[in-house]
Sequence to fold (243 residues):
Amino acid sequence: DKVLPELIEPYELRAAKLREFLEDVKPSLCYDIVPLADPFGPSVTDPDLQCLVVSEETRRGGEAVNRKRLENGLPQLSLYEIQLMKDPDHSQNEEEKISSSSLRQRLLGTLLQPPRRDPALPLRPYVIGLTGGTGSGKTSIAKLLGQLGAFVIDADKLGHAVYVPGGPAYEPVVAAFGAEILNKDGTINRKVLGAKVFGNQEQLKRLTDIVWPKIAQMVKERVKEADAQGKAVCVLDAAVLLE
Fold:
């Protein structure tokens, strides 16, 4: 598994860079660059191949290729082993070799492109959307950014506040789903409400169409609050940010 696969460039871009490099090294050769959709690719099916370049750590993969070729009735490939270059500047958490995984780790915390200026948006506060599934580390990152001075908006907390009596979604949700979702004290029973929408796309959309715009409005109010406090950066921690 590759580290930080989200930061891997698209195949077309990587192939174009590789071709440029190879043609720069030896333009007289003919290069056929193909995408690998599985661990073996054309190495186990192409009868014209004669040699496979491997490294010390991929030699076993080369031997597996030759076993597959024999199964497919093809001649074995010569395995030419190269030495991997060491990266003298690798950190403790990075691989010793020169590695794209290390380069992707170093990209973390850098801007891939400058922020676009939108005349319709205020310059401050600068709002960062922080999203990801449960256990992905959103809360930890939000906490770190908060310690650095950012104003943190927790959409999960707003998602609870929106349902409380007097909250912006309380009355419309009760009107839509009935008094049977209420506890004796008048609060919304989230478990009963959840059972009504679980596995039912139509009912779930009915709920989110009520709740999400209310939460979005609460977020906008919090951003204004951050601005009033003079905060330069605002972080929105939200599991369903894009939706």
